[in-house]
Amino acid sequence: MRIVSGIQPTGSLHLGNYLGAIRQWVRMQDALQPGQQALFFIADLHAITVFQEPASLRQATREIAAAMMAAGIDPARAILFNQSQVPEHAELAWVLECIARIGWLNRMTQFKEKSGKDREGASVGLFAYPVLQAADVLLYKATHVPVGDDQKQHLELARDIATKFNTDYGVELFPLPEPLIAAAAPRVRSLRDGAAKMSKSDPSDMSRINLTDTADDIRQKIRKARTDPEPIPQDVKGLEGRPEARNLVEIYATLQDRPVASVLQDYAGQGFGQFKPALAEVIVAALEPINARFRDLLAHPQAIDAALANGAAQARALARETLAEVHAAVGFLK
Ligand code: ATP
Ligand code: MG
Known about the structure:
This protein is mainly alpha-helical.
């Protein structure tokens, strides 16, 4: 078993990234058996599909590394690195771009969403991004890839690319990666709009809880979070058609590893005026230790850079093996 997953340094990490991705990664890392590996990377090559200020990109990469370590990713047990320090990602992506078909990429819904109306003005990288993602996992012959539902289509594409490569060259080089869909990983919604997901790139900071927010920031954001005037319902059915209310209850339940129904039992009939302060305290309690570790780590940027360089060296050793096989299969001279 080899798990691979990544996160873009496009802003600071939020509660959605934590509950939907990083907390799961930490649990997977903690459950690794001897001989199993987990690789987690900061996807800086992906980030530049949309222009990033160089200084911000550098800072965001360090901050995300620090936030991941603060949340429990342990560089002694998992391989933690940033993507651009392992040039084999880009090299394999090129080979796979010659395997993937334009028609396949045209069907990717994320490109349609991210490029919006200005398709012609989007970067070629943004269009080809899912192929780089395929390279990210195939480079390590990943068997399992933790994905949110926004990424399921891209993993399907990675499987199609792996199959076509193996068939075209008559090899059994790439195993087909399986999705790992975590049981307790909700889609966390924006605090301002229950129809949108919580996102790093949302211009409104009030829409998300950052892992680096202070206790007072968190209390204020939850107090101002959008809800409806109805009280907390008795059961899960009562949350239908109430995305903002559902979101707040789900955050509470997920942070406490409890079913939504059990949280509803505790608060049924109460208004959000009573529920919100309780929720804020649950979030503060969960994030405060992460926040404190984050600040300690960030005070020593050289230590972060050293941890990433060490992770990159480990990742490169694995990546080089796969790439040597790819070169041989494709017919590149040694
Ligand atoms: P961006 O807005 O730049 O796309 P993002 O907030 O969507 O940023 P990503 O780096 O695209 O974050 O995703 C990192 C991981 O976090 C992925 O596994 C993704 O599925 C997960 N994730 C992102 N947003 C949420 C959310 N609101 N709820 C749960 N999981 C999320
Ligand atoms: Mg995203």
